[in-house]
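Hi R.,

Here's the chain you asked about this morning:
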Amino acid sequence: MPFFPTRTVVGALLEFQGAWQALESVMAQPPHHRPPVHPVLYLKPANTWVRAGDPVLLPPDVEEVEVGATLGISFEGAASRVSVAQALDFVSGYCVVNDVTVPHLDGPKPALLRPPMRQKCRDGFCPIGPWVRADQLRSPDALEIRAYVNGELRRRSHTGQLRRHVAQLISDVSEFMTLAPGDLLLIGVDAQPARARVGDTMAVEIDGIGRLENPLRAETAALQEAA
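And the predicted structure, written out as tokens:
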């Protein structure tokens, strides 16, 4: 069953325990001085959205990307300042998402609270795949997420490893922004995501939801073929 956003895709950083621990020492240093208290968010605008099977085109200045295996949460009601107990009542379903990202945390000390727009908002950098209704999952906090490159399993994570469970994340985000029908909230990506290059096929698989596959192609080659 397909789902495709009509409003906004919002992603959360540092929500997996492993991602938090990998950068915890940086959080106490300038310019941050302390760990973030509230969710650290970014956007995946409409130019990034593609469907299962669509090629993701890498521009000449991008050698490889991270396979951002993550869970997307869609909404059937406007969630504004909702409690943890109420949060899941506003969820319409869940989908498989690949939050494709240019690697950017390997070099100098990153500015964690600066949204990585240049690395996350390239055209086609948000494949969105299979979707299930909320009542088809026993719990969004008990899902294994797997990332593959060319059919080889490269990374496993689990929603039970989140610092904020799904209802808590929804509640905390809705405290300052409404999550409305047509919005998609991504729970984030664990530390050390798999990487892929031109010619590879990326895949993300989530228990009980399905599998999302997209090939990586060179932007210049695709433009030449279209000419």
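The first helix runs from residue 17 to 27.

Let me know if you need anything else.
M.
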